[in-house]
Design a protein that fits this description.
The chain contains 14 helices and ten strands. It is an alpha+beta fold. It has one domain (about 35-275, about 310-395): Cysteine proteinases (Cathepsin B, Chain A, Alpha-Beta Complex), CATH 3.90.70.10. Strands 1, 2, 3, 4, 5, 6, 7, 8, 9 and 10 form a ten-stranded mixed β-sheet that branches.
Length: about 400
């Protein structure tokens, strides 16, 4: 009898031990890595892949336009990035030549170029202009960019008494050879008519930024190379810019987001954070010896692998980063939702243009701290502005 009781007691203790072990393991698993729960997710089109082309501006800008077509008309479409690229690069070349090469001619751009194309050239579908005449299945512009730059430099910097009337035809021939000719009709409509059929109007969109070297609540041409059209950016304090970002998603509006992604906090695995190194070190505990043996890059990699405390970002820090060339205009995504991690911290959800990349298959999770620090600008529908902020900007 005593033996039986001992066996039962032993089994009970073993069961309790196993249950506690499972709880500890479960708790540890929960702490490791990022565990995201979606708060709100707005309808968007599929993930695209810009591959070896500097066309994130066209991809993210058209991602916004596609999401807007879904919101406004319930129409799902796949718009041609290379149609926008061809028109934009021809416009950029004309300005470059007009300034005798004293400007920049590169394949980069801004969402403003997409809006300019919407207004002046319209849009066409991907089927109408795939832009892949050179044989690859994904965009690869290494050769195209080199050839176009050499041609434009020969014109802009040549020792000519005057220019021939056909120099644009030669450049257009280069883009047509690589990307295909821009269609004159799509679905029985002109490109401008087709864009209007999607409910899109360039006048309905606004670009916002946040820097102190210009007065707040005014518009100015942000001094970055890819704003070569010198398009206006409306200036807000960073707290209000973040307010707009949250308000837009809450009210059902996506927005295009341009940012500096050269920071190590923008991981290639699907998160963008600004880890606070000092606070992280204080939390390492028994792992401190291992932590101190890491290189700086290894520490950064570790701190983007799971939630860590983040830096408190101020307006002054943003400005210092921009003035010192630490914050640069690198990349564009479409922000289409919000999520929270296992600690309750909120993140913006971004549709990237790197194909099925990262841990979340083309989706990036951007912390508010990162957005405060590294946002260059956002583009969104004017109706996505809180009324109080629209009034301050004089936007109707």
């Amino acid at each position: 009898m005593k033996k039986s009781l001992l066996i039962i007691l032993a089994l009970m203790l073993l069961g309790t031990f196993n249950a506690n072990a499972q709880k500890l393991t479960s708790s540890k698993d929960k702490e490791e890595g990022f565990q995201f729960t979606t708060i709100k997710e707005l309808p968007i089109t599929g993930i695209r892949n810009q591959y070896r082309s500097s066309t994130c501006w066209a991809h993210s800008g058209l991602a916004l336009m596609e999401a807007e077509a879904l919101r406004i008309k319930g129409i799902k479409t796949d718009l041609s990035e290379m149609y926008v690229v061809s028109h934009s690069m021809m416009d950029r070349a004309e300005k470059y030549v007009r300034l005798h090469g004293n400007a920049t001619f590169s394949p980069g751009g801004k969402c403003g170029d997409v809006l300019y194309c919407l207004e002046h050239y319209g849009f066409v579908t991907q089927d109408a202009m795939p832009g892949l005449r050179y044989g690859d299945t994904l965009p690869n512009h290494s050769e195209l960019d080199a050839v176009a730059k050499a041609y434009v430099d020969a014109i802009a910097k040549g020792k000519f008494s005057h220019l021939s009337p056909v120099w644009k035809d030669g450049l257009q021939g280069i883009y047509d050879s690589y990307l295909g000719k821009c269609p004159e009709t799509v679905n029985g409509m002109t490109p401008v008519e087709y864009a209007k059929s999607l409910g899109l109007d360039a006048d309905n969109y606004i670009t916002l930024t946040s820097f102190t070297h210009h007065p707040f609540y005014t518009a100015f041409g942000l001094e970055i190379e890819d704003n070569w059209r010198d398009l206006p950016y409306y200036n807000l304090p960073i707290d209000e810019l973040i307010e707009v970002m949250n308000y837009a998603i809450d009210k059902g509006y996506t927005f295009q987001w341009s940012a500096d992604v050269s920071e190590t906090g923008f991981s290639r695995n699907g998160v963008a954070v600004v880890p606070d190194v000092k606070k992280a070190e204080s939390l390492m505990g028994s792992d401190m010896a291992h932590w101190l043996g890491m290189s700086t890059s290894e520490k950064r990699s570790e701190m983007t692998s799971k939630p860590f405390p983040e830096m408190e970002i101020t307006q002054e820090m943003r400005q210092e980063g921009f003035d010192n060339w630490e914050t640069t205009d690198d990349h564009g995504l479409l922000i289409f939702g919000k999520a929270k991690d296992q600690n309750g911290k909120e993140y913006f959800m971004g549709k990237n243009s790197w194909g099925d990349a990262g841990a979340y298959h083309g989706i990036w999770y951007v912390s508010e701290a990162f957005a405060r620090y590294k946002t260059m600008n956002i583009v969104l529908h004017k109706d996505a502005l809180p009324k109080s902020i629209a009034k301050k900007l004089g936007v109707k």
